[in-house]
Design a protein that fits this description.
Layout: H1 5-30, H2 41-57, H3 64-77, E1 84-86, H4 88-97, E2 101-104, E3 107-112, E4 115-121, H5 126-130, E5 137-141, E6 144-145, H6 151-158, E7 165-171, E8 179-184, E9 186-189, E10 193-198, E11 202-207, H7 214-228, E12 235-239, H8 248-256, E13 263-268, E14 276-279, E15 291-295, H9 302-312, E16 317-320, E17 328-334, E18 340-349, E19 365-366, H10 396-415, H11 417-432
Helix pairs in contact: 1-2, 7-8, 8-9, 10-11
């Protein structure tokens, strides 16, 4: 008797279910799962029935590998926006990315309601130069709708040959209609730590992302700032705005640079291996001098670990806007097939026990990103120095240098008002430390 179509389907279901049960039992035995653990046989039977119907009824033939990989991706994407399946190519790209050199657009992204949400564009990258902003929702990649794609699939499309263009259709808060932004792909070389002096006495450090060597680079750059400061650094602005995060150990190293004791961060998860505590070592690179940390809605993950630790220990004033609120830890779990799972395994907590997940860090001083404009007046008040034949005070060269420094810092108010206010806050702290204050 010739087997019917339904018979073939049932045979397929039984075969796949049997294979899955055998594999699952082997995996669970290796992981030492308690004997009370039971496999969801009914759900597995439903899965294999769907598998068989697709194999038999779908309009085009689909190979088993594609179906099963799609099932794995779906299983992970249904957990949270950050868990994902990394095929061998994606896993390799992730490993390269943590070193600070990779190909693409230069934007950190996550999933939100089926669309790609920009956590932060990275400094000095094509995405930043093209005007991408934290909070942008990407709804189309060239002509491909984002809805229905996994995060890894979308990232794969965004990455490509350096020099090639991609058109992103972006929905942005405050805009009446979607924006079309053309970005030219490039090799992304991210320098995670940048520095400059703010006048003679104060330093500025910007961390663009947390890479494996960020802590080491931070110490090197602060040492250079100390050498540049005429009387030693009186304070530091640590800029974590639009920093999407990165390596957990780097966040611990950066926090430890300014703390002398106590907890930096701890993680809590179901697996005992995901329960970790990190504490400070007795050394403060700034010897207790004040710190202002700048944050905004693009400050996420590792940035929030640093801001939370320094805030809880009263080591820094946090200034700016409420942070992104990514308080979960992703662990890379390599597979035997050279692929990997990027799986959320824990939540992290600040020293005082706060979870930042979906809450963010609230600054001590809330300050939105503003653009200030000087009030122009036609009338200029006369001063002693404007009078004909006025006496010099004998320190004209010093006064000239001071004026140039003052003009430079006043220009800062026009270009970066938040940084300007952070510097003023550092100065106010040092004034309050003077005798009789």
């Amino acid at each position: 008797m010739k087997p019917t179509f339904k018979t073939i389907s049932v045979l397929s279901v039984g075969l796949v279910l049997g294979v899955m049960l055998a594999i699952a039992q082997g995996v669970f035995a290796e992981r030492n799962v308690p004997s009370t653990f039971s496999l969801p046989v009914n759900e597995l039977r439903t899965f294999t029935e769907v598998f068989a119907k697709i194999k038999n009824d779908y309009v085009e033939d689909v190979d088993d590998k594609t179906l099963l990989e799609n099932a794995i991706r779906g299983m992970l994407s249904g957990l949270d926006p950050h868990s994902t399946y990394l095929d061998p190519e994606g896993y390799k790209e992730l490993q390269v990315g943590t070193t600070g050199r990779f190909g693409g657009l230069g934007v950190e992204v996550g999933m939100e309601d089926g669309f790609i949400k920009v956590i932060s564009p990275i400094d000095d990258t094509p995405a930043k130069k093209a005007g991408m902003q934290a909070g942008d929702l990407i709804v189309r990649l060239d002509e491909t709708p984002v809805k229905g794609l996994s995060l890894s699939q979308a990232v794969k499309i965004m990455r490509g040959k350096p020099g090639s263009d991609i058109i992103l259709t972006v929905v942005r808060e405050g805009q009446d209609k979607p924006l079309k932004i053309t970005i030219t792909r490039d090799i992304i070389r991210v320098k995670s730590v940048k520095k400059k002096m703010l006048g003679d006495d104060y330093g500025y450090i910007r961390i663009t992302s947390f890479q494996s060597k960020t802590g080491e680079s931070l110490l090197e750059e602060i040492e250079k700032l100390q050498e540049s400061a005429k009387g030693g650094l009186k304070g530091l602005v640590l800029d974590l705005r639009n920093n999407p995060g990165g390596v957990l150990s780097a966040a611990v190293d950066v926090s430890d640079a300014f703390l002398t004791k106590g907890l930096i961060v701890y993680t809590e998860g179901r697996d005992t291996e995901s329960r970790l505590k990190f504490s400070a070592t007795p050394s403060d690179v700034l010897s207790g001098n004040p710190i202002v940390v700048l944050v905004n809605g693009g400050s996420a993950s590792a940035s929030e670990i640093v801001a939370g630790a320094l805030q809880d220990h009263n080591r820094a004033i946090i200034m700016g806007e409420k942070t992104f609120g990514k308080g979960s830890v992703q662990t890379i779990l390599p597979m035997n097939t050279n692929s990997a799972l990027k799986l959320t395994t824990a939540r992290y907590y600040t020293p005082s026990g706060r979870s930042i997940q979906a809450e963010g860090i609230v600054p001590h001083i809330k300050l939105e990103s503003l653009r200030v404009q000087k009030i122009k007046t036609e009338f200029k008040r006369l001063k002693e120095a404007d009078l004909s034949g006025h006496l010099d005070n004998g320190e004209q060269e010093k006064k000239k240098a001071k004026k140039e420094e003052k003009d430079s810092l006043e220009d800062l108010a026009d270009t970066d008002y938040q940084l300007y206010e952070a510097l003023n806050t550092l100065k106010a702290i040092n004034i309050s430390r003077l005798p009789n204050h």
